Amino acid sequence: MGWFGGSGGKSKSSKGKKGSKNKGGKAGAKDVPGGSTVFRVTVPDNVKPGDEFQVYAGNRIVRVRCPLDSRAGQSLQITVPADGPAEAPPPQERRPDSENVRKIEGSNPPAFMVGIPEGTRPGKQFPVIVGGQQLMVTCPQNARTGMSVRIVPPPMAPDVTQQPSADAPAGAAPPKPKPKPKPTTQLFEVLVPQGVTPGSPFALMAGGVRVLVTCPPNAGPGQRIRFKLPLELVQKPKNTNEATQIKMKYGKDGWQRTVRATDLKFQWVRMDEKGDVEHTKRFHMEKSAYVRRLDFRPGNDPRIRTGLLSLIPANESATESKIKAADGRDLVTYSDLANAQVKDFADKAQWFQDTCAQLCVEWNEGHMRMNVRREFLLGDSVDAVMSLSRKDLRKLWRFEFIGEAGIDAGGLAREWFQLVTEEIFDPDMGLWQSSATNQMSMTINPNSDFCCEDHLVYYRFLGRVMGKAMFDRQLVCGHMVKHLYKHMLAWPIQFKDLEHIDSEYYNNLKQLQGMHDNDDDISMLCLDFTTTSEVMGQKQEIELVKGGSDIEVTNENFPEYVEACLKYKLMDMVKTQLTELLLGFFDVIPEPLLTIFDFQELELLMCGLPEIDMKDWKKYTEYSGEYEEDEEHQAVLWFWEVVTEFDHEMKARLLQFVTGTSGVPSRGFGVLQGNDGNIRLFTIHGIPMDLCLYPRAQ
Fold it and tell me: Which backbone phi and psi does 259 adopt, to 5 degrees?
């Protein structure tokens, strides 16, 4: 091997030699009179001025010293004499692997099993030779001498030796160094918590974001595991909305939405007091929750999809966190949703509408004209909307009432959405009925098939209209019961949601739970896995599970009985109608877009903020408890002072908290309805601070 100094022009060894110039103007090796050859080489990366590096010169390896005025990426010219050929360096022999190392065949990247040598204690390191390089391996805490551990050695450091380019012309500007690719992931290392078994998930905070990680099959509590997360996940913005901070801190009844590290899908988990993922194998009234799952299926008509609707445990649900545009690119990613989730409601709504505008089909690609007769408004509208494809639903719509002069500049569309939804939510139509616990909230009529021909078509139609209303910034004239908004968002449904549907049924199950907790024999009540439903004045028995009429309710299977009752009341009794409603809605709105809202915000977005008369609210308010005889109590005065200063959104949220809906009766607060169906005025009840520190609604 020879050594030569490099320079930006001629090398020092070529001075005074006429043939040392590269006359041909081409890069590469040139014959030089006097038995020497000129080469042009590029200084490799990571080489500093004064450092040496190796290059190929013909069939030889020579060592070059980088001049002090040169740097990585620049070209140098060297002259190599022909006499005294340099000898190639002897090949370095690769050191054999240690005796306690065994390669795992078929592993990618290459993995090895390494035996722990004698005298090695847990936590201590020992040397091994793997793939020709020496490594230090740390003995795991749960391992000992004689056991084997699996390792994945790092790749060998790349050789900086470069062969000079023969393509660049002599005197050409040195090539720019290639920019290093920006990292797209971040590596994390964590100890597997106690109690976590191989293959089970556990939640942790990584980069300020709660993620769900699955324990590898060959790991256990106390062992360190590594996983990578996309930078878009760990670069989640800080939350600046105080109301959202409180909501995200306390979660919803212990359930929190997190993101899976494997595929970035949203998933619900329940956290215990220690911050660990809580797993409940059997139904529990306080802890168990379920989420609707809608599996889409192609229909006989390509314009109309079908689907399978079911209730699954909340911790088994998964929602996509990205949306594709029509051209296949990612229109919305996890980072976009993460940015939107921490905004206040007004900014969330604006971001939602801006995203819908990007999903809207351009005017020059086609638009829809809806011609309807006012006297046959619902029938004409159903025929028109149900004939459209999913792409047509995202086009611009222009409305015309046949026989009426008018240009739709927004007013006709607003009137159409109002009239259509008012008619279809009308209880006289037979599709919806007022909730038994709140006259302002509508619930699906489980017997709609007896009241309306082609009732499922109307539910699909309404779902499309509700989706199109959100897509086009229109409002829907109809408030639904709370759990239906949860179904639309795929939010957890719990036992206490049953109280807002059928308070009597809810209280009866609570009494049975009390008997179960007191070890009273429930079998003495002669119950089975059936329930009674009234259809057109006639009662019929419905099995909650297959063969339920032959299954007796006992103390042992009581949790499964309550679970079956919950699923029937919250979904199964209206599953066919709810399936069509959701299918129609998701024909327009991509489901990931809804992950930025909670069920209260969804109602406000669909139905708008109500106009609240504060004088009417105060006039029809009752006082009880510590305030029954003192309506001018300082706490009462503070309450009304704060509420009066609320904006429309916060006032609506207070109504949702107390009554379950943001709707206000058309005749004002004087006819507000309670859970028992009777008039129940808004009531401020004072209780001692030691009983409850925070406000609560009953």
Answer: -125, 135
**Length of the chain as a residue count:** 698
- Could you read off the pLDDT of 93-136 as tens digits, one per residue? 667 888 888 888 777 778 888 888 888 888 788 888 887 777 87
- Contact between 137 and 128 under an 8 Å Cβ cutoff? The reply is yes
Between CA 130 and CA 118 the distance in angstroms is 19
**CB atoms < 10 A from the CB of 572, how many?**
19
SS3 557: coil
Q: What is the pTM of this model?
A: 0.67
Q: Which long-range contacts (CB under 8 A, 24 or more apart) does 373-381 make?
A: 373/401, 373/402, 373/403, 374/401, 374/402, 374/403, 374/404, 377/416, 377/419, 377/420, 377/423, 378/420, 378/423, 378/424, 381/416, 381/420, 381/461, 381/465
Tell me which residue of 342, 544, 334, 573 sits closest to 447, measured CA to CA: 573
Tokens of 539: 């009662």
d(CA 224, CA 192): 6
Strand-pair partners of 635 = none
DSSP-derived 3-state class of residue 466: helix
Measure Cα distances from 12 to 43, 51, 78, 326 in Å: 17, 17, 8, 63
Secondary structure of 558-591 in HEC code, one letter for each residue: HHHHHHHHHHHHHCHHHHHHHHHHHHHHHCCCCH
For residue 223, give the amino acid letter: Q
